[in-house]
Amino acid sequence: MTQMMQNSDTPQNAYHYGVIARAIALIDSAEETLSLDALAAQLGMSTAHFQRVFSAWVGVSPKRYQQYLTLGHAKALLRARFTTLEAAHVAGLSGTGRLHDLFVRWEAMSPGEYASGGAGLEILWGWFDSPFGAVLVMGTDKGICGLSLAAEMGEDAAMDDLLARWPAATFAEDPERLRPWVLAAFGMDRTLERAPLYLIGAPFQIKVWEALLKLPEGHVTTYGEIAKAIGTPKAVRAVGTAVGRNPIGYLIPCHRVLRKSGELGGYHWGLPIKRAMLGYEAARAESR
User: Is 145 considered catalytic here?
Assistant: First the structure.
């Protein structure tokens, strides 16, 4: 069962994302821009209540947010806020995002530990609410090592996905041990200093994930730019595979990677969630 975080009436909870997810589905299926009244009616809500919930979650009006969900906006974002990862890092941009300030340290398994499939490793897990629906979070005593968003794939598939990554590990349900890190990671408790990460992956994967952590909120990049940034410009396909195997989606922001054409591409936890994340961050960046 999903654990409620503190302040369950905050804009960042599963109910609000559920409304957004249904609104996105309606926007996708519509042949033209839907009015506020039309969206609210199809969701079975009053116009005023829908406006409050929607604006509280994303910070802009439903009409404005619809613009953030289009392919045209993704392309505009790529043109206007595209930065090479190296340039962003040199310019200090990696420190401007909310999440980057939280992750003041991270550790990685050794290649040998990774090859063992997590043998001898105890991994704790728990279900929580997040700004993007129910989220399964896993962690060791060193930090968060896994995160799976269940809004699209379902809770059983989300659990199976993470369990299969470290088949030899021992797993124990203990949400209370993880709760402080989860609250910090999703901005639910800003008094906490950090949400440490423990990256469990092959060396090449970890290089890709480390590069993603340098990408600021509100910016996007391409698979090719990541390949260049880690010194393997011809390994675009391998980079795509590593991005897709990211075990800590959103916290390691693989949703900020687009195809060179500006198309969104795929997303391990569901394309609607990727679109919601990009729109959410673009709206937040504009409001700042």
Answer: no
